[in-house]
Amino acid sequence: MEDESHINRHITALSNGTYVVGMLLLLSIPLTFHAYINSTPTVTTISAVESETGKEVSLAASAEVAVTRDDPQPSPAYGMQGERDFHPIIERVAESYEIDPALIKAIVMAESSFNAMAVSKRGARGLMQLMPSTAESLGVEDSFNPEHNISGGVKYFKRLLDRYDGDITLALAAYNAGSAKVRKYNGVPPFKATQIYITKVIEYYRYYKGEQPRTTESA
Question: Is 25 helix (H, G, I), strand (E, B) or coil?
Answer without folding.
Answer: helix
